[in-house]
Write a structure and sequence with these properties.
heterodimer, A: 220 residues, Alpha-Beta Plaits, 2 domains, eight-stranded mixed β-sheet, 19% helix, elongated, B: alpha/beta, TIM Barrel, four-stranded parallel β-sheet, 20 helices, 19 strands, globular, binds iron/sulfur cluster
Chain lengths: 220, 611
Amino acid sequence: MRKCRLVFEKTGRAKYISHLDLMHTMERIFVRAGVDIVHTQGFNPHPYMVFALPLSVCTESVCELVDVQIEDDESFDEIPERLNEKSPEGIKFKKAYEPLTKFKDIAYIDAEGRFEYDGRVSENLLDKLSNFFKKDEIVIKKKTKKGIKDTDIKPGITDIIFEKADDNTVLVKARVTAQNPTTNPDLIATALRELEPDVAPDFSEFMRMAMVFEDGKKFS
Amino acid sequence: MDARLKRILPKVQKPARYVGGEYNQTIKDLSHVDTRIAFCFPDTYEIGMSNLGMRILCGVFNNMDGVWCERVFSPWGDMEDEMRKAGIPLYALESGDPVKDFDIVAFSIGYEMAYTTILNMLDLAGIPLRAADRGEEDPLVIAGGTCCYNAEPIADFFDLFILGEGEEVDPEVVELYRRCRAEGISKKDFLIKAAGIGGVYVPSLYDVEYNDDGTVKSYTPKCGAPERITKRIIKDFNNSYFPDKIIVPSTEIVHDRVVLELFRGCIRGCRFCQAGYVYRPVRPRDSGILIDQGIKLLQDSGYEEITLSSLSTSDYKQLPALCDGILDWCENKKTSLSLPSLRADNFSMSIMERVQKVRKSGLTFAPEAGSQRLRDAINKNVTEEDLLNSCRIAFEGGWNSVKLYFMLGLPTETDEDVVAIAELARKVLWVWKNHSPNKSRGVKITVSTSCFIPKPLSPFQWAGQVSMEEYKRRVKLLRESLKSKAIVYNWHDPETSVIEAVLARGDRKMSKAIETVWRNGGKLDSWSEYFSFQRWMDAFHECGTDVEFFTTRQRGKEEVFPWDISDVGVRKDFLWNEYVKSGQSQLSPDCRVRCTGCGANCLLDGGVCDA
Ligand code: SF4
């Protein structure tokens, strides 16, 4: 048995699959493709599958990572194609390789978002957005298990820029902290809705583009 | 994906069930498609995707060149609200296209409580509810499924119904539809032609007259429609279509596993059971074929669980061979076989033992009645000895949880019969005390009762249902008789049973009440979250539907029923005879012991049942 890291995309209709459902779906993809993976021992064995960072439902990604253990005679090169043949729409495996790094070293996530404004995009809007995120702190109400808590999300947003895409759409490029704390890019829109409703988008969606080391290099 | 849909999906629970895109979905190139079918299941995705019939028939349609069949389910309330707010009409999962733009909208109707959901789905699709209000431009709205044997309460909403098994007749209807459309034939004339296809019921081609007392006087066919509609069956079940690829949902559904259908029909003849009569005659599928199908589906789907489905699985003659075949394949894999509840009388220890290695779950038995006398009256051919013996084997094998299902309100039931349920449960407990190898883990015996619903085309179609008050009194009596910590008693509320009883034996006049319930917010009535007894009673009251006429009323031998136009093979005089015998607590043998001449054999070529 040896470790195998898979890079996969979760886009389009697949973005609505929850993390829990994704685990079942993955398990079945491996069975269908005939790629044996190691299972945990015990009463209720389940596949040993470690996801780098769970992706929230309704968010797309082109850089998801999952570690599994495969038979020694499996070839890394063939695995992605074999899995893709047996995957639902929107789940696409891009690479398989022996992992040399640890998920705990993922420091940031680069995400791109689309902010849709129903006919309200202007130069002025872009400035307002940029200025908002230049503030020293952005305190929003966050639901936790112990009720609603004030949370400053500013430290979680390392970089953010806004670009006009068309008359209705602003593109957002953000680098957010991946762990300690994990910053969900959706919070960018949430913060606007809460604190600056004038410039809050009518609809927003994000896609994870890359996972990044502390030093800014791409994690793989 | 529709931009409006994209906006609402993040707001609803479990959005994955509203987008399609699953493994093995069928996508066709529209330039090669001339007929689009929206296969509608009037319940949630989780329930509908668990339905084997839907999977089979979607496959049958998609096997036709130029036909693309897609799936449609009912949204849950939160999704429906968002769809209505955003102006998104009901759409099909594969393409996302509005159902209104399809050629044929086909509903699968397995239970009466889905009627309001059908109306809600039609409305959400923007299709006029009543067939009479739909024009040439609207889709053809059709239905199949068990409820269609008495389609009368919903007759006004459909252009045609298909009686019986759809594998052969469904494509015949679609082919006729295509021919008629190509020749520019009107919908009305198409329907007249369709009525000539065996198994097709076109309700608009029948004039119904009623007697002064509200019972049916007559059904008069028009335009050459047949007097009665004979249901269709697959005569050669070994060679009938079975999907070799199944859609694997990307989100959890109710029955998330491979399902094998062992046979159609049932040899038993339990008198309360509609399915036992309307699905006759028995037609098994060879175990070799089933093992092949099962293995293929497990490999292709990636499912790690397979189960067997049929009306009375333990009556499948090749059950040991089938289980062995599947279990052999499962060996050294993580795949497991789960068995449905087996009959108590021919409970096979060796099978249970092998299955047990893979997975141990609670056991379920359905004696249906507590006393031998009442079990004889309903022709449930299970003795107390059989049941206790099965429980003993199970307890000895290490099981420590048994569920026992009963009905209250069965015809001829007395208080003694009710109390006998408690006695039987106590005997099961006693068996556990005497035979469990490991008593430290305790035992859980669950007794469940539901309120009996007399169904059309069963021997009890003449019987009155007990009133709600009477059911509740019997529940109380049983509860007081069941005093043991190891025995848990669950009883179902009778409210749904009463409504279901009204609809099951309803007539054509009832469509108004059903529509009223829907207009007052009724939908997803099989879900307690949505069901409102009061809403139904108010609508019945408003529309002049006499509830007791349909529920508690005892019918006479000569009464003409709304469903008498449905010919399921089993003759009415046979059913009456069974009803009379039930009053005398007289058993009828099962089809294997002796053919009792029900008439269903006439549906087969040569007229010989292979029970
Ligand atoms: S004809 Fe005889 S064997 Fe066939 S289903 Fe009827 S009773 Fe059973």
